[in-house]
Design brief:
Blueprint (H helix, E strand, L loop, with lengths): L8 H6 L8 E4 L6 H8 L6 E5 L15 E4 L6 H6 L6 E7 L4 H5 L25 H7 L2 H10 L6 H14 L5 H7 L9 H17 L1 H15 E11 L2 H13 L18 E3 L8 H6 L7 E7 L1
Parallel strand pairs: 1-2, 1-4, 2-3, 4-5
Antiparallel strand pairs: 5-7, 6-7
Helix pairs in contact: 6-7, 6-9, 10-11
């Protein structure tokens, strides 16, 4: 399967500060670009585990004794590493969101460029898909999806229009959905609003916010002291969660204070926020919205 150049490759892998004999995890294997880079720094004693729930990615598995590909969602990172008697890690890399390959395969339904069946599943084992959301969710849940995950202020009106349209005819494809939502797509903002709509549906289909929270909490548990977490996010909802968790070790509220009144936090932030260069964006347009944050467990 053809995958584009991995985003922020050198910076994200470099941020792991790799111990050649260490144990690392790439939780978003995709085309294997980040994994191949990590393997360059590992000795024969080092080990790399990778996760990917998308069946298309499995054809990219790397033939290397130091490498193991786990065909599961990374929300189960602790559970599946336990099968390999791995209880602590030297570093974890996550390149969140949809891969370039997933965007480029029309029938997956991720891209606004193609007409496709309403799917948007990252794993074909997932029972929930975009078709069920658009045709079976009630008005309150449709409103929630578009408001919470698409940050669309007119989410209530979008939900009502979808309900009215599907009473007349089931909405089966992405083009049919676009037609239903035409009134919300003024020419000058069409692509931006469509992207927000698709993002909202995709996040709901794949439970991306819940998955990210579960992953970050488990990462804190299984990283060794001085173990690194390197996370690339692509939209504000993801980045907010990552930023807050790396800063405070929690998603809401404030961390406890120690005896001296200082906040007791589990991570040390490494460096500043990293974004792609203009040259990288020219090579891979997907990199445009990428943000890399790196932290070290105390």
């Amino acid at each position: 399967m053809e995958y584009h150049n991995p985003v922020l490759l050198k910076a994200s892998v470099g941020g792991l500060n790799i111990n050649p004999d260490g144990i690392y995890v790439d939780v978003t294997f995709g085309g294997g670009g980040h994994s191949k880079e990590i393997l360059k720094y590992l000795s024969p004693k080092g080990k790399l585990f990778a996760f990917d729930q998308d069946e298309d990615a499995w054809t990219n598995a790397i033939n290397d004794e130091r490498f193991v590909l786990i065909q599961e969602n990374f929300r189960f990172i602790k559970r599946f590493l336990r099968f390999y008697n791995v209880k602590s890690l030297d570093g974890i890399l996550a390149d969140l969101g949809v891969s370039s390959h997933q965007f480029d395969v029309p029938e997956r339904g991720f891209s606004t460029r193609f007409d496709a069946t309403l799917d948007m599943r990252m794993s074909k084992k997932n029972e929930l898909n975009a078709h069920k959301i658009i045709n079976e969710y009630d008005e309150a849940n449709l409103k929630r999806v578009f408001l919470d995950y698409g940050e669309l202020k007119n989410a209530p009106a979008i939900a009502r229009v979808i309900l009215e349209a599907r009473e007349i005819k089931i909405i089966n494809t992405t083009d049919e959905l676009k037609l239903v939502l035409t009134r919300f797509l003024p020419d000058q903002f069409k692509n931006k609003i469509l992207a927000q709509m698709y993002q909202a549906i995709r996040i709901e289909v794949n439970q991306e916010m819940d998955v990210l929270k579960e992953f970050l909490e488990q990462s804190l548990e299984i990283l060794k002291p001085e173990g690194r977490l390197s996370v690339i996010s692509y939209h504000s909802l993801e980045d907010r969660l990552v930023k807050r968790f790396l800063k405070n070790g929690m998603f809401e509220g404030e961390p406890e204070r120690d005896f001296f009144g200082n906040f007791s936090v589990p991570f040390k932030i490494i460096g500043k926020l990293i974004v792609p260069t203009d040259d990288e964006i020219k090579i891979n347009s997907r990199a445009r919205s990428a943000k890399l944050r790196i932290a070290e467990k105390k």
